[in-house]
Design brief:
Layout lengths: L1 E2 L8 H5 L5 E3 L3 E3 L8 H5 L5 E2 L3
Antiparallel strand pairs: 1-4, 2-3
Bound molecules: iron/sulfur cluster (2 copies).
């Protein structure tokens, strides 16, 4: 998963991830637990998350 500059660090995606894979400091990032399920992509209000190429 890739997080772009739209991320405002709101943290909403953390609660939504079923794999506890998202860490938000100034901006969200995903750890090794990420299963690429894509749920966070739909949930982010800032459209900041996309699949990595
Ligand atoms: S990726 Fe989206 S939902 Fe997650 S912290 Fe950033 S703005 Fe919020
Ligand atoms: S793709 Fe799925 S497992 Fe990975 S961070 Fe997003 S919600 Fe969590």
């Amino acid at each position: 998963m890739k997080v772009n500059g739209n991320c405002v660090g709101c943290g909403q995606c953390v609660a939504y991830c079923p794999s506890d894979a998202i860490i938000v400091l100034a901006c969200a990032s995903m750890n090794e637990k990420c299963t690429q399920c894509g749920k966070c992509i739909d949930y982010c209000p800032m459209v900041a998350i996309s699949e990595e190429a």
